[in-house]
Design brief:
The chain has helices at about 5-10, 25-35, 55-65, 70, 85-105, 105-130, 135-145, 160-185, 195-200, 235-240, and strands at about 45-50, 75-80, 185-190, 210-220. With about 240 residues, the chain is of the alpha+beta class. The longest helix has 25 residues, at about 160-185.
């Protein structure tokens, strides 16, 4: 299918066909494709928990407030943001970038480019993503506000803002996953209606981890699986050209 075909095919499926199981390895492959999604500073502050064990079905359905999109699904994927891993992920990317620069940059520019990456991933990213009872966010906001008097700056640097950045990146991965599933003829439903505390307890996630969304997976049960025709606001209302 073309990209337009995939986008047209993908729907939020509410009822799955219990007689049509899906291949867990193919779902895993779609999740691997999801890691190719763009994300902020390439920190990849996400984690994908693929649930195939049917013993989790009742608990995950209960945590999802009894939605049929959860109760009739064959498998589930919990998309999690891991802002708490920002130092580890930044160091991983920095190590990669050093090798990447060494392999692909002109010799005369290697040292400067590595120094820039070391500052970015070794100092700036830990500074932006660190948390301390919102105090770090307030400090960052004061710094960029003063800097903003003299030049353009990124102003969304509070702890709330940075949490939002992690969620946006994770959501991009989730969308990529759903399109990859559609390419295989599989269906999905992204769910935001869930009890995050119950889900984290069920999956033994640390308190610092945050649930971005839960995506149920399966094959739609005919026309019963979707809620009729797709509704979208007229394009002219959302498109602006300047």
């Amino acid at each position: 299918m073309s990209l337009k075909d995939l986008l047209e095919y993908r729907r939020s499926v509410r009822i799955y066909d219990s007689e049509k199981p899906i291949d867990a390895d193919k779902v895993k492959d779609c999740l691997e494709q999801a890691t190719l999604a763009p994300n902020s500073s390439n920190l990849q502050l996400w984690e994908f928990i693929h649930i195939t064990d049917k013993n989790y079905k009742d608990a995950i359905t209960d945590a999802c407030l009894g939605q049929t999109a959860a109760s009739t699904a064959d498998q589930w994927v919990v998309f999690v943001t891991r802002q708490d891993l920002h130092r580890t992920r930044a160091q991983f990317v920095l190590n990669f970038e050093k090798g990447n620069i060494d392999r692909n940059s002109p010799a005369a520019r290697k040292a400067k480019r590595i120094a820039v990456r070391e500052t970015y991933y070794g100092k700036l990213m830990p500074f932006l993503y660190s948390r301390c009872f919102r105090l770090m966010g307030v400090f960052r906001w004061l710094v960029v506000t003063v800097m903003g008097w003299f030049r353009p700056v990124v102003r969304e640097v509070t702890e709330t803002h940075m949490r939002g950045v992690a969620h946006k990146s994770c959501a991009l991965a989730a969308q990529t996953f759903m399109l990859a599933m559609a390419e295989k003829g599989y269906d999905t439903c992204p769910m935001e209606g869930f009890d995050s505390r119950r889900v984290k307890r069920l999956l033994n996630l640390p308190n610092s981890a945050k649930i971005n969304m839960i995506i149920s997976c399966g094959i739609r049960k005919g026309n019963e699986g979707i809620w009729g025709e797709r509704c979208r606001v007229p394009f002219e209302e959302v498109y602006k050209r300047v």
